[in-house]
């Protein structure tokens, strides 16, 4: 039996060009704002040297060529703690994913146009960070991969589902989902506060996280990552936590 809808966009503000955008009630304004506020004081002295060491290694590997700004990886937010939405618990942690048959599930419930478009851009085999959101300590806990590209999200037609959309038609569905499969846990939990420390330093010295969407469009539950962003964040699992 599939899990109820549990992945969503909270308070996304991206759709000003589409005034008819339906923002699901699971897209409340507070969760990601709270996450950002929790991370406003990054660990002191934790970032610049790490970026320079990482850049030195990457330059030696690539001949110093800058990568083009293309998105080939993703960050997917999901809530690991119980929260009722229209009487349905929308909790879905990485442990819940691991408990699924073949450790695979559909990523449903996205009701923001920009996030939906990112879902539709995902390609088979691409990897994504699994990010625990709207919890005591948000951050990256694991890696998943795309095992089925975008197809209609069935929850938009289910009147009992928290993400039901009466304006969507089966002949022209508004909302899409993909299937993801668990790959592995990260070697350690990588908290939002640590990633933010690097982001702030990179804004000053031109590091790979300077434009990371986790901080520029933090409310989106589906976010693209460049190759450099993905590789840098992945390198953090090798470092001791601050």
Output the keywords:
alpha+beta; two-stranded antiparallel sheet; nucleus; ph1033 like fold; Thymocyte nuclear protein 1; 8 strands; phosphoprotein; six-stranded mixed beta sheet; 7 helices; globular; 242 residues
Question: How does this structure look, described?
Answer:
The chain has 242 residues and is of the alpha+beta class. It has a domain of 127 residues: ph1033 like domains (ph1033 like fold), CATH 3.10.590.10. It is 27% helix and 24% strand. The protein is built from 7 helices and 8 strands; from the N terminus they run H-H-E-E-E-H-E-H-E-E-E-H-H-E-H. A hairpin with a 2-residue loop joins strand 2 and strand 3. The longest helix has 15 residues. The chain is globular. The termini are far apart. About 18% of the residues have low confidence.
Quick structural overview:
Residues 1-66 are annotated as: Disordered. With 242 residues, this protein is of the alpha+beta class.
Question: What's the name of the CATH homologous superfamily of the domain at 73-188 and 217-227?
Answer: ph1033 like domains
Oligomeric organization of the protein chains: single chain
End-to-end C-alpha gap: 41 Å
Percentage of residues in DSSP E strands = 15-25%
Per-chain topology:
Blueprint: H1 30-38, H2 48-62, E1 71-78, E2 84-85, E3 88-89, H3 94-98, E4 104-107, H4 113-121, E5 127-132, E6 139-152, E7 176-191, H5 192-205, H6 213-216, E8 222-226, H7 227-235
Parallel strand pairs: 1-5
Antiparallel strand pairs: 1-8, 2-3, 4-7, 5-6, 6-7
